[in-house]
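pinning this so it doesn't scroll away 📌
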Amino acid sequence: MQEETKVVNQAVEQQEEDINEVIRIRREKLQKLCEDGENPYEVVKYDKTHNSGEIFANHEKLAESGEVVRIAGRMISRRIMGKASFAHILDIDGTIQSYLRIDELGEMYESFKKFDIGDIIGIEGTVFVTHKGEVSVRASSVKLLSKSLLPLPEKFHGLKDPDLRYRQRYVDLIANPEVKKTFILRSRIISAIREFLDNRGFIEVETPILNTIAGGAAARPFITHHNTLDIDMYMRVAPELYLKRLIVGGFERVYELGRQFRNEGMSVKHNPEFTLLELYQAYTDFEGMIEITEELYQYIIEKVLGGNTEISYQGTEVFLKRPWAKLTMADAVKQYVGIDFNNSTIEEVYKLAKEKGLELEEGLTWGRALYNLFDMYVEEKLINPTFIIDYPVEVSPLAKRKPTDKRLTERFEFFITGREMGNAFSELNDPIDQKSRFEEQAKKRSQGDEEAQMADSDYVTALEYGMPPTGGLGIGIDRLVMLLTDSFSIRDVILFPTMKPKGK
């Protein structure tokens, strides 16, 4: 074992020496370029005419016309064969091959031979297809646009360490082309969301990120301090209360797509800052939000996935075609846990839970017990899209009560692949009831519950002016992107996820 460890350590030391030698040589090359008046960092512009994707799509026409194209990107491979060479250039669309000959480039060819893998270069030339059928650019000129002083990771067995990939996303994007595709798809998903809502008369708005009250969600906030005002402020945990103020003010359809901040745990499903869509529509209810949710998903699928509603997520088949399943929370617990809350008192619930060997904290109300059993034993089983409706009022401080059962609210969350993907309800617009619920939340907060909502007296004042019947919906964008890109971790769909500093 000691001998094996010694061999491994020697290999690591040798690899570090090799890398240091590469860096030394590259810096010497840069110094020589600067001494010759060819500092690549002084290049300020290069007029590209085409990306690789455009050339592949139109290569027959470009080759026939002999049109001169100018491409630019990172050189990721090179094969020098005396008086001719091949190089592959990576740009936003992918990689394209270039063919370079000394008799066409002259002194530029000798300069090219000194370029390094990872350098950013520009190539001008004409399009042709090699005898092996590869679309290529025959270079008539080549220019170094930026020097890479560090070797690309694939030269040393690739960038596979997840921690390093997230810390150095810029290298991850170079080394792993599929990562770039994920974030391009994320951008297309967000564009489709905005297009869907704009086409339906919603207005995109911006609300404060720094708040004097952390309201709109049961979450622990980040706290900062405003020096001039000499007050503590909170990074927003949700934009809900401000968006509903706009409904009071006369806007009938509003939405915000932006970052939220919650000082909570981190996991494959949670990042301290994340992207949330919240929308509110006057004169509708949570049933209207169910319709919007299904329509929005179908719109995104049509725009981004070509209409394919059958997808695979981490090896599990998921069927997204509407209509989606809908269950009350009580029926879901009855189906998956075997306890009938509709016909049981809280005492009977505890007895049944004990008989089944289920964990249930002592002293819970009927509604809190229902929610806890659902959260612990049902959520993970909801693989295909499922709306869970009729949430207990104890866990829904901003939702309207269900007229036929005051213990419940007109609220739903929808679940896919065993994860909560969104939350909606018929918005509580009774200022007296809202004030009472804020007081109950404040009481919990004073008892040590840091996730209980803070009382917002100004929001109650807004409701006292009158808010029309309103439906509201929130959808986590990161989890949506995870689903549609088959990404395991939320860090795979956030360009720069929160990371602990090295050495901490």
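📌 and the second one:
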Amino acid sequence: MSQSFLQMNTVFISILIEAIPFILLAVLISGVIQIFVTEEMLAKIIPKNRYLSIIVTMFLGILFPACECGIVPLTKRLIAKGVPMPAGVAFMMTAPVINPVVVISTYAAFGNSWRMVAYRCGLSCLVSFCTSVALSFQFKDNGLKHAAAPNMNLKKVSFKTKFDAMIEHSIGEFFSVGKYLIMGGLIAAAMQTYIKTSTLVSIGHGKVSAVLLMMVLAFILSICSSADAFIASSFRSTFGTGSIVAFLVFGPIFDIKNLLMLLGTFKNKLVLMLLMYTVIVTFAGAVLLF
């Protein structure tokens, strides 16, 4: 076997090892929501007001130690349970950034400094809010590609029956998401192997090109948000603050494996609009931070 193929294989396996624990956590939480959380419970938590619902769900990610690898199936289940699509998208966009694991890893990666944590979380919330509000005016349905599975009436059954149903749902969700993880991981590994980072870095000399380059790099590398800060910190001597923040904000929302999961879950037009708004707001915010 060629050295390049062996390198690609190593990168692919590392992506799977990095992502699978978070996928498992996400599908288990998704199973709990499906079986144990009712629409009435969510209705009490999520405000009816368009803007308040987005703000509330935007900060729910603080309670979920999930990275972007597993956030799509979790968001799908919340929306299927009745959470408005824009509010679900707001949760999906911020949860991989503002959760405790990612906050701590970002703090450690940048020399125990809260400044980069504040920039990352602040811009992530801004991107999430602007994108979700824009989508709320464009799309009136839940945006899911396939109709949600009917809710199970388990109010009068035993806890064991509910637990078994939760495990069954989680297993089905895992295999549904797993195929996109494998395809995305293969593509990301190939691009990391055959597109040299040094070649890309040589392009990013100006402010605009540096921000765009780091966003493209975040998409190609497809690194888990719990570890991407350590990669980003290695570029501090090459790029400015704005471009590094763009890397840290854009990657958890859009990378290769995540894009495939989104396309498998949401309607194509919604994914396209989500991508467009994310690129615009991330780019504008990052340039201002330069």
